[in-house]
Amino acid sequence: MKVAALDGRLTISVDDRWVDVADASHGRFSPDPMGAYERWDELLAWSTSAEASSGPTAVGSPGVPVPRPRQMFAIGLNYREHAAESGFDIPEHPVVFGKFQSSLTGQGATVRLPSDGVDWEVELVVVIGHEAHQVAPEKAWDHVAGLTIGQDLSWRAVQTRGPAPQFSIGKSYPGFSPVGPWVVTSDELDDRDDLRISCSLDGEVLQDGRTSDLIFPVADLVSRLSSSLTLYPGDLIFTGTPSGVGIGRDPRRFLVPGTLVSSIEGLGELSISLV
To answer: Residues 95, 169: one domain?
Structure first.
């Protein structure tokens, strides 16, 4: 199943078309996309019903499919090749920081570059579907609603300025967390732990990797995060970026105005305009 927010309303994919959930369910479910994750099991069960199949086709533009997460986590240095290009050893524990909700944006958004030192980081993003606390790795996927595409745009000078690094601030300017275009349940994927992941600027490929290179894969991340805190339905986890970022190049390179397209196998493409 795919879950989207077409013109801000909760929609799901049924037989290769989009169905407005509130309309088709006659008000049983809210049009608010966040309501999907609070009632995830109910929505999954309803999605296969005759009521969902007979619902009218929805039209509209996809926005942020998870517009108001309680928590947004991000993981640094979580691909082996990216850790190497950054000059770090393979971490023994996940490098965790936060991103702020005000930085969220969606498919087709226009994002203003506040400096000439903003870097790209395409990421697989996990959407939590069931509350998780102290979850074992073998049970972690049971707490995941689905996966989506994200970019962790990063103003490197702000991220690294002292006396201590400012990761959350440097990665949370307006539009710095594009997510979408929809959430895909893992049963739609041939191998949820090995997906091709890439991004390009005006057609030039900047990153091209596979999620099988993750040091801490999805189940491990959910388990490790939940060992310290509680994950709630609708929370987002940016799982890290593969090699090929601008700061790791010689000479260093950063974003310029253009069209940035992020792609993950089975999840589609997320396109934003940089100005």
So the answer is: yes
Q: Which amino acid would we find at residue 73?
A: F
Angle, vertex CA 98, rays to CA 92 and CA 100, nearest 5? 165
Q: What is the pLDDT of residues 172-203, one digit of tens each?
A: 999 999 999 999 999 999 999 999 999 999 99
| DSSP symbol at 36 | H
SS3 state of residue 59: coil
Structure tokens at 244: 């090929």
Specify whether 94 is located in the same domain as 146. yes
Residue 253 CA to residue 215 CA, distance in Å, equals 25
Same domain, 76 and 46: no
Please work out, in degrees rounded to the nearest 5, the angle formed at the alpha carbon of residue 237 by the alpha carbons of 98 and 132.
105
Contacts of 97 (CB under 8 A, 6+ apart): 73, 74, 76, 167, 168, 171
Is the Cβ–Cβ distance between 245 and 253 less than 8 Å?
Answer: no
**Are 85 and 78 in contact, with CB atoms under 8 Å apart?**
no
Distances from the Cα of 200 to the Cαs of 174, 193, 270, in angstroms? Answer: 21, 22, 11
Backbone angles phi, psi at 26, to 5 degrees: 55, 40
CATH number where 185 lies: 3.90.850.10
> Is beta strand 2-6 parallel, antiparallel or unpaired with respect to 9-14?
antiparallel
pLDDT in tens, 240-257: 999 999 999 999 999 999
Q: Which residue has the tokens 């007979």?
A: 54
Let me know whether 209 and 101 are in one domain. Answer: yes
Query: In this structure, what DSSP letter does residue 65 have?
Result: S
Using CA atoms, how far apart are residues 55 and 25, in angstroms rounded to an integer?
Answer: 8
